[in-house]
C-alpha cells in the first residue's frame, strides 16, 4: 500500500497545531540506521487509509521527495472527540531485521462447526489480532484460522494453530493465550406460578387470605317473652 509524505521543517506544539489547521498531520519516521525524520501527511488521504486493514499490519511504501521508503505503522494519536489524526509514527523496514508486528486474524468455518450446528453453543473471538515476529518479507496480510471442527467444551489457543512459514507468535510473557472460546447456550425454562401462602392465615385459607368466617347455623334466638305480672 502506497502513500505520499512530505518533509517537515518545523517542530513543536505550535508548529504542529498550525500544520493541522492547514489539513496536514505531523509525523515521524524512525528506526534503522538513519536519523529520525520529521514528516507531514495529507490528513484526508490519511483518514481514508487508516480505515483499511492493510495500512495497519503490512509493509507500506512511503513516497518522500521522489524516493520510496518501506515503513511500518507504529502508532496513531487520535483527537479525543474529533475525527482527526493528531500524530502518526512509522518505523523503517530493513530486510535483514526481524520485526514484531500485529497481524489481523480472520476466522472461517464457524457456521459449519458442530458447536454451532448441533451443540447449541456460542463461539466468542477472544483475539482479533495476533502479535508475531518475522522478517519483513514474511509478514502476512492476515492469519486465517479454521473453526469448522470446534465442538462443545472445546477452545482454541495460540499454540493450536499453524502459522505461515517464518512467522512465530510473540506471546509477550503469556504461556498460551486463548483465541476462541465455546460456551453452551442455556435455554430459559418458564417456571410454573408458585402460590404464596401467608403464614398468618388460618388453615384452609387460599392465596394467603384468611378463611371466611363460617355462616351462622341459625338466626339469633328470639327475645324472651316478657314476664307476666
Q: Give the spatial strand order of the biggest sheet.
A: 1-3-2-6-5-4
Q: How large, in whole angstroms, is the Cα Rg?
A: 37 Å
> What percent strand?
35-45%
**Overall residue-averaged pLDDT value:** 85
SSE sequence, one letter per element: EHEEHHEEEEHEEEEEE
Low-confidence stretches: none
Using DSSP, what is the number of strands? 13
Structural class: mainly beta
Count up the helices: 4
3D shape: elongated
Measure the end-to-end span: 130 Å
**Helix content bin:** 10-25%
The largest β sheet comes out as: 6 strands, mixed, barrel
What does this structure look like?
The protein has four helices and 13 strands. By secondary structure, the protein is mainly β. It is elongated, with a radius of gyration of 37 Å. It starts with a strand and ends in a 45-residue tail after the last strand. The mean pLDDT is 85.
Task: Indicate the topology.
Layout: E1 2-7, H1 13-21, E2 24-30, E3 37-42, H2 43-49, H3 53-57, E4 60-64, E5 67-78, E6 85-92, E7 99-108, H4 114-117, E8 121-125, E9 129-134, E10 143-146, E11 155-157, E12 168-169, E13 178-184
Parallel strand pairs: 1-4, 2-6, 7-10
Antiparallel strand pairs: 1-3, 2-3, 4-5, 5-6, 7-9, 8-13, 9-12, 11-13
Offer a quick outline of the entry.
By secondary structure, the chain is mainly β. Helix content is 11%, strand content 35%.
Summary tags:
229 residues; four-stranded mixed sheet; six-stranded mixed barrel; 13 strands; single chain; 11% helix; mainly beta
